[in-house]
Amino acid sequence: RNTNVKFCLSSRPLRPLEQAFNRSAKLRLQDLTRDDIQRYATDKLCETSRMRDLQAHKSEFTSSMIDAVVSKANGVFLWVHLAVRELLEGVSNEDSEEQLQKRLELLPDEIEGFYAAMLSKINKLYCTKAAGSSDVSIQDYFQLILIEEMTLLGLAVAEDQTFGHGVLQFATNLKPGDITSKCEKMRTRLLSRCAGLLECTDDPRDDEGSECDKYTADENTRAEKEYNSLIEAEFERYGRVTVRFVHRTARDFLLETETGRTFMNASSNSTFNPYVWHFSARVAPYYPKVRTPAV
Predict the structure, then answer these.
(1) Cα–Cα distance, 20 to 24 (Å, whole number)
(2) Of 56, 96, 119, 290, which one has the greatest count of Cβ atoms within 10 A?
(3) CA distances, 43 to each of 10, 49, 63 (Å)
């Protein structure tokens, strides 16, 4: 057993280390993960019918594109995830092969470059709040998630005071389907406006949907127990959907880089208090006992 062994670890190839230990034994993470990254990129890109057609008829193009993604990734799975998502956007937009190749060439080499590009895609309409407006800016959502990951139900409660009051008091005008409708609208806003920096993670138990999705009859004709169970199912389902940053490095980017801080400070909504929202979002799951629906 040798006690004189020393290791030099770095997140990327650093020139001083390369020069000092060029002839020494080395282990590169990207060499170990290359096959996994290639499999991931292939599987994700070929989920679309168009890419499967290209792979069948123009295999050289798809193979070269996947190889380029793997090569540029340098073993970083997050980079591959973001790169594949960008390419899939081009596939969805019916980009030509030349345009897809251009997208690939324009992909930033570093994760921070990806985040900066994502911020630049956010519509400025969603980044500011007019005086007297009740609209919420993207920066407001980010501020809240910077404090702590939230549930989709919690965000919906915090954003809409009227809806939040109904949820927290289990008001008599709260009907089956109301929570589903509100939370799905919140999900759409987050995913369409945040340029992929936030994501909603569903609980695997909800893959088959909940009973509230199947509700069609007049609720007042149902028994009290069945009526309440439908609303409880919505509480439970959307109380398990987590809203979080796509990766912890996205949080670090907003807090620690000049680009991120500049973006966060650009909102004109100076009256927004994320801690008040946070409190409302956190108490949402603790609703009172259910009640008999009003007739």
Answers:
(1) 9
(2) 119
(3) 30, 12, 12
